[in-house]
Amino acid sequence: MSTDPAYLQATKISEITKQFSVSGELTESELSSLAKQGVDTLINVRPDNECENQISDQMWRTLARKYNLRYFFIPVKSGYYTKTDVAQFKAALLQSSKRVHSFCRTGTRASHLWALANKDKLSFADLQAALQVHGFDMQVISAMFGNDQ
């Protein structure tokens, strides 16, 4: 089964830390490459049917099995992250023994969830610096940090 549709160009993968990276939707060959580079966990935060030609959650599950990856589906709408979403994301991160890759349409939701899952370990400024270098803005989630900024 090939999931490398012609409309997908090479995906920009942003390595936020040595253990965590984000991107927009991947092709199967990019997923294979990530697995070869030590990624053992894949987190999909993109709801099904966001756009035409999008790979479904079920197909991602199949691909994850093919490449021996743990797979988590935590669909979120951009800018709307519940405590449950953050807790599920954090739990998925903790289950990885190697590297984690998370994706959505552009990588923004994945990066926001990572920041929110790590707000008890890193300051807002540190998280913002880690994400800004890759072009991700945390302004939309700044209120979720309360007075920790």
TrEMBL record:
Instruction: Please state every residue range assigned to the domain named Beta-lactamase hydrolase-like protein phosphatase-like.
Output: 15-118
Could you state a single Gene Ontology molecular function term?
hydrolase activity
Give one Pfam family.
BLH_phosphatase
The protein's superkingdom reads Bacteria
Q: Which InterPro entries match?
A: BLH_phosphatase-like, Prot-tyrosine_phosphatase-like
* UniProt protein name: Pyridine nucleotide-disulfide oxidoreductase
